[in-house]
Amino acid sequence: MSAKFVQEGAKLPITAVGAIAAGDVVVKGALVGVATSPILALAEGAIQIEGVFEFPKTGGSGGNALTQGQRVDWDAAAEVVIAADSDDETRQLGYVFEAAAAEDLTVMVKLHPAGAEVGSGS
Questions:
Q1: What stretches in the chain show pLDDT beneath 50?
Q2: Exposed (0-12), middle (13-18) or buried (19+): which is 21, by Cβ within 10 Å?
Q3: Cα–Cα distance measured from residue 59 to residue 102, given in angstroms and rounded to the nearest whole number
Q4: Residue whose C-alpha is closest to residue 112's, from 89, 95, 97
């Protein structure tokens, strides 16, 4: 049996457990996405799982510099981007789109679903 194209896959349909505001970061299994519009509690909506977004990161004396192309994770507990690690409490978010200095409070990230290969081309 052959595969049939269904959609681009840039958005993941979800049913919100609680109310979700536009801009909220949402973790669904291994995927991390961003709500681009509000979703009411128990309503159906979608989160963006592809694209470039500006995310919060720890800045100041406790911050780390992030380099362009570096893999980063989402720390849901702290609600910030961190350098990629193997902690089960974080989820792969994507890759740094534009370098961020240690003191920066935000970083631009290209969303990249966990398990997807960069530049696979196949």
A1: 120-122
A2: exposed
A3: 6
A4: 95
Residue with tokens 């997807």: 116
DSSP letter for 21, please.
-
Tokens of 62: 């406790």
pLDDT tens, residue by residue, 91-121: 899 999 999 999 999 999 999 876 555 554 4
Q: Which two tokens stand for residue 72?
A: 């980063």
How far is residue 90's CA from residue 81's CA, in Å, rounded to a whole number? Answer: 9
Structural domains in the chain plus CATH codes: 11-111 (2.40.300)
Amino acid symbol at 2: S
Other residues' Cβ atoms within 10 Å of the Cβ of residue 55:
20
Helix (H) or strand (E) holding 107: strand 106-111
Is residue 75 within 8 A of residue 27, CB to CB? The reply is no
